[in-house]
Specification:
Length: about 240
Amino acid sequence: MTRRHPSTVLTAAITVGISGALLLTACSGGDTPAPTKSASATRTASPTPTRTPSQAPAPSMSAAPSAPADEASAPGSDDDTNDGSGQGTGNGSGVTAPDTVDFGTVTQQGVAAAGGGTVVSLTGGGDLWTVVVAGPDGSLTQSVVSATLGRVTSGPFPKDSDAAAKGATAARAAALRVDADAAVAKATAAVPGSSLTGLQLGGSGSAPVWNATVTSGGASRSVTVDGVTGATRAS
């Protein structure tokens, strides 16, 4: 068996040790850039806190004072709508209960809107009156007349009725000798201090009759007016 000389073993050990040292040195040399980079990162990060305080004044812009200014101007817009016109009736006059009503004008306006005919119904109160006019064939037309303005404010509109109703209406209208305007005057005279709320032509073609409703002292009364003679009867 061959035996190695002690000097040879020592030389080999020294060689291995030197190689290990060189290898460690090389590894440690490769790690040196890392601390350099971390140091530079530390320097660049330091301005960031400096910028953050500089942006803090942004929320303190003068947006808050402008809101009360807008709110203060809001009530002014309400004043533009208070023109005081068209209260209650839609006729622009603001009058809902005129002192007197000229039924001659009211009925004439209804007839004109219908293009001619005979008033067979009159209902309403205060400023507004619904006038129904029958044509020669008994067809009906309805309009709303303002007593204050003396003109039609709504309509005319046709009213449906069958052939039998048209015939009966035409016959009654043709036999009339007392028109609607005169019937109103007779009905209110029959109950002193009363005012008209409704007038309707009834009866037959040979004996037309006006049926009127009037109010006096808050109570309603019925009055009939003969469409030929004008005779009245209150109940």
